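User: Okay, second chain of the day. Same drill as before: sequence in, structure tokens out.
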Amino acid sequence: MAKHGKRTQTARAQFEGKANLSVEEAVALIKQAASAKFDETVEIAMNLGVDPRHADQMVRGVCQLPNGTGKTVRVAVFARGAKADEAKAAGADIVGAEDLMETIQSGKIEFDRCIATPDMMPLVGRLGKILGPRNLMPNPKVGTVTMDVKTAVEAAKGGEVQFKVEKAGVIHAGVGKVSFEGDKLAQNVRAFVEAVSRAKPTGAKGTYLKKVSLSSTMGPGVTLDLTSATTAATTAA
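Assistant: Same drill. Structure tokens below.
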């Protein structure tokens, strides 16, 4: 068995015996234990009672984190004419049509989010095998196929997080940086849990939210008390 470094051992010791913490307790623990030389991302993992192999149990959506992600998001937009100008004015990093398609086909993908106007989808559809596996394919369900490119670009730049359940029924996402203030991270965590809760599919049976965990990029994870994690969602419902 491989031996863990001193930093990892120290972090694990801090987490030992701790579980089902309130959101605030978990955030404080993660911030205290983070010791990497870069600003680690605070990551959330949610185990859901769904089987995404069934279409009526697929969970997918977006969440606008109230305090942003702390990450610079590069946005590409497929648009022409006035909509292309609108995208550029909104802050899109790359805007194009056939030229952008050819750039992507050449293997050059220098963006984190891809937005398209509906009329561009026949063109974008040719890139399915490239963008699909990278979770970059524009989709009207998450607002990335739209005529309102200004709002879509601003949302992507302003802290919008997309989520999609994986085969094992798990959703992963980044909800901020360890450098964020504790209360701002807690707000982001609860906003994300609420968004996933609201995305509960019609085919989900039994317990939907099974387990929620938080960790930092390089640190151990800790489980959250579900009541604490869903307080905001319950209040808003």
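Confidence is low (pLDDT under 50) at residues 233-237.

User: Thanks, on to the next one.
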